[in-house]
Amino acid sequence: MFQKSLGFRIFFWTFIILIGFFAFFPQLWMISTSLKPETEMYKISFFQNFDLSNLNRILHNSDFLGYLRNGMMVAIISSLLSTAVSAFAGYSFSKFRYKGRTQVMAIILISQAFPQGLLLVSLYPMLQNMGMIDKLPSIILAYVALTLPIGTWTLKAYFDQIPNSIMEAACIDGASDFTTMIKIVMPLAFPGMTTIAIYSFVWAWNDLLYALTLISTTAKRTLASGMIFTFTGEGGNDWIGMMAASVIASIPVAIMFVFLQRFFVAGLTAGAVKG
Amino acid sequence: MKKSLIVLSIIALAASSLFASGEKETALQEGLTFSNWSGSEESSKEIFKWMIDSFNENQPSENHVVQINWPWGDTESQLALRAQGKEQYDIAQIDIRMLPALAGAGVLADLSDIFGESFFSDNFAPGSISVGNYNGVQYGVPWTVAPMGMIVNPQILKDSGVDFDIVTIADFEKAMEMVKNNHPANNDSDAGNDILPFAAMTKDGGTCAPDFIVWLWTFGASVFDENGNCVLDSDEAIETINWFKSLSDRGYIQGAMGRGDARTLYKEGRVAFYNDALLAKGAITNETFGSIETYAKPQVNPVLNEGDTPKASGWGHLLVIIDRSPKKAEAKAFIEHLISEDVALKYFDEIGMLPSKKSVLNSNEVKNDYWSNSWTPILDGGRLAETAGQNYSAYNSIIVENLQAVLSGSKTSEKAAADMVSRIENL
Amino acid sequence: MKTISKNSTLMAWFLVLPALLIFALMILYPFANSIFTSFTNKNLIFPKNDFVGFENYIKLFKDPNTLPLLFTTIKFVFFSTICPFTLGLIWAILMNEKFKASEFMRGLTLVNWIIPGIAIGFLWNWIYNGDYGILNALLNKMGIIDSNIIWLAGKQTSMVAVVTARTWQMFPWYMAFIMGGLQGVPNELCEASRIDGANNIQVFTHIIIPTIKPVLILILILGTISNLQHFDLINVMTDGGPERATSTFAIEVYKKAFKEYNLGRAAALGVIWAILLGSFSFIYLRNLKEDN
Question: Count of domains in chain B?
């Protein structure tokens, strides 16, 4: 795409170094800190005295592993549910015309404007009355709800790009509405759905506020609130532990990403360009 | 067909998992629910588990204690939220600063009915009893009560040539000056090992305001007068603000200093003075420096004029019973278990939390411990921060923001004081 | 368009039902409830709940901190969107050159996005720390400064710290989207214009940018909305301070509701914010090309 002119080369190498440093140095710092013996914690040194005890400590902390497990489970379920619900709704907005459609779309979009922390305040007593406090389904539901606006709108945009001719052809071949949707259109929008799945996953994975407020039993905690607990406290903060835990927590998701990123980027290619 | 089956089965799986995870939780509704933060913090996790297990051993299963945990910073709001709902809730660990708000919210039970009047006066010192009391009603059983003190690094003082006791503000300022100017680490070319004379709290309302209120008291000022009017614009208050600003101008204190930052720096041997509670021992212990007496000595705050009583911020943990709990008798048994001699001494052994019962405080184990000995003589000297109550967070924010404005030069002390008063009155 | 048969409309509503139900329960109801709450003095922990009319709104308008709140939010949102966007754009261009390590570097960059937000907050707090932070150590070594800068204590510098952390967290996301867009640029177009004598910059401005413009607009809008809601990093790093220099709407609403327990005031602030943002979204809706 770009000619390898001198100007471009200078541009390339300058920014590879600058941005690369910005992106990767803190990662390196994090890893290096998690491998440090405690006495060296605040010294500016890198990989001098290897001390695996921090990582060991975290790996043997059954509570923390529980947080990882819960976080992973909640994130995957939220992601799947959110994608499915958004896909259905997006499909409905895109391929059908009916009264009330634009109003519903508008309301869902504008709902992103409202402070999510404030929603929580009204949600809490409502969930309390339903007996849903301290139950994981409540935060899964919350995550689906919070990623719904972006999900429906993005997937609607993807579905918009799939020409109606494909659907008409399927109809002529005798397929029902439902079959057309599941078998023909959705596979075409699969990259877009992957994008939303990943987006919802990261949302649920990273969330702190809702997880902290709605879940209070250690056994059910997810990652972010679990980390606040384990590594910050009245008596002091455990920096090394937190860095070690972050490294460990990031590994499974990082591996997932390195594999899935092809889909992720491909998904963003197809369709998004035509907007 | 296959793809639709896959999609549908995923959705079904997800839906059923929602219900599945719902089932396991009904068991939690029995027994006694004990909320706390220490039970999930690394340093105290084990001892809390032991304290609860040792109680449950002797109880029928319907009276077993089960913990729920929230971070310390969220305890006040989470406790109130839960107490207003319907789930099982019986006992809670709270910070003494949370008592006024929670008592005012009406979620705590009156303990004199449950424990009897004489229980308190028999077992605890007056200072400990009073922090559990609000508007004349006893809501809290003291679990560990000790004022916050000034932690001093004797080694740093020695290396700076300070050879006098820190009794008055004048001593304090002189010592800080000597640390700043004379300590070898401050005179070399490496900025990375500089020693901060006083790690005063300047970052967030929850730490800065209560600490600053102690200085107000030291200078003879206060936040409110007897009638509840805000008197932060009194001459003494402005004098305190000016004094604090002068510390910053002379480089004795720093901005953006939180308690965690101060402890970290102290542990690295880069702070001469800072305020903290006794539970900081774990956070500031640094084996490479040798035994703790050499680098950490708790003492009282300096006073304005010789002969004044040193002022201190009250600190501590209380045990409370939730008013709507149907198991108050069992809750009482659990609390008595926690403050009993065996349990309290083990708690003390493990993480240094001072017992609260007079009899246990007098035991040899406590008396022979260097760290505790520094606190036991001043146990009753703490006074609850004036801002505690319903508007705790709002008041603290107003104070810290204006203090930061003075330190950064955006406002004069007089303007800041006037603003504090007007914002507090208009809340 | 399948609009004719009754079955189809039924199907359409059936498809949208799960989203609507969840939405109504988890968002619409709390939102309506909050509007109602904004006219009361409801408190999180005290049993107060009286109707007070517009008092919350009046107090907010009289409060000297409300207007700066708007500016601070705009400042944070603007920089937290532009910076990662720019970095993401440049990085996407670089990664798109498909050299040997590019796919690996791409994946590694995405890791920033999935590290738990609180860890990122603490990490950058540590980097920016005045006394033992590595930034000061580096600047010291390079001779740029000779005494430590207390980054988190200054009004401007604390905003820099927070924006840096947010940029570090989010630029991989922008990179991914832009890369997707770049890969969709038809190579023939570029080659054709090169034959006509265009240089790199001309290709960039006349072909690439116009082609990927929809993506750019999409992510700028998504990024803006996400930054408007953003809470975690600021809460961990500065908690809105010093002197409210990093206090955005999201932080302020959280504090008023969960720390000061003033639900009525928090709700009023939320409603004001929703009106402001709603207008913004409305404009976006208008600009969207829709066939109706």
Answer: 2
| Buried/exposed code over B230-262 (b: 16+ C-beta within 10 A; e: otherwise) | bbbbbebbbbbbbbbbebbeebbbbbbbbbbbb
Contact C209/A at CB under 8 A:
no
Top mean pLDDT of A101-110, A125-134, A138-147, C208-217 is at: A138-147
**Same domain, residue pair B368 and B395:** no
- Mean pLDDT of the region C65-92: 94
**What is residue C266's predicted lDDT score, i.e. its pLDDT?**
93
- A61 φ, ψ (degrees, to nearest 5): -80, 100
The rounded distance, in Å, linking the Cα atoms of B348 and B360 is 10
Chain C partners within 8 Å of B254 (Cβ): 130-131, 150, 153
Check if C97 contacts A (Cβ < 8 Å): yes
Mutate to test the interface with C, among B180, B393, B424, B425 (most CBs of C within 10 A): B393
pLDDT per position as a tens digit, C125-149: 989 988 888 898 888 888 888 778 8
Which domains are assigned to chain A? 6-34 (no CATH), 55-274 (1.10.3720.10)
Which of A47-51, A71-75, C127-131, C162-166 is predicted with the least confidence, judged by mean pLDDT? A47-51
> CB distance from C124 to chain B under 8 Å?
no
C258 touches chain B (CB under 8 A): yes
For domain C33-112+162-291, give the CATH superfamily.
MetI-like (1.10.3720.10)
ipTM: 0.87
Q: What is the dihedral of CA A191, A192, A193, A196, to 10 degrees?
A: 120
| Report field, pTM of the whole predicted structure over 0.80 | yes
The amino acid that residue A117 corresponds to is G
CATH (domain of B333): 3.40.190.10
Residues B332 and B406 occupy one common structural domain: no
Does the distance separating the beta carbons of C260 and B394 come in below 8 Å? yes
Q: CB-based contact (8 Å) between A88 and chain B?
A: no
Same domain? B226 vs B143: no
Question: Domain range spanning residue B280?
Answer: 149-313+391-425
Same domain for B213 and B296 = yes
Q: Compute how many other C-beta atoms are within 10 angstroms of the C-beta atom of residue B114.
A: 16
Same-domain status, B41 and B165: no
Residues 124-183 of A with CB under 8 A from C: 126, 141-142, 144-146, 148, 150, 152, 164, 167, 171, 177-178, 181
Q: Please indicate, yes or no, whether residues B92 and B164 belong to a single structural domain of this protein.
A: no
Residue with tokens 């009282």: B300
The structure tokens listed for A109 are 């979009």
CB contact under 8 A, C278 and A113: yes
The string of pLDDT tens digits covering residues A135-186 is: 899 999 999 999 998 888 888 877 887 777 877 887 777 777 777 777 777 7
Q: Which residues, listed in sequence order, are joined to residue B274 by a DSSP beta bridge?
A: B151
A188 and B CB contact within 8 Å: no
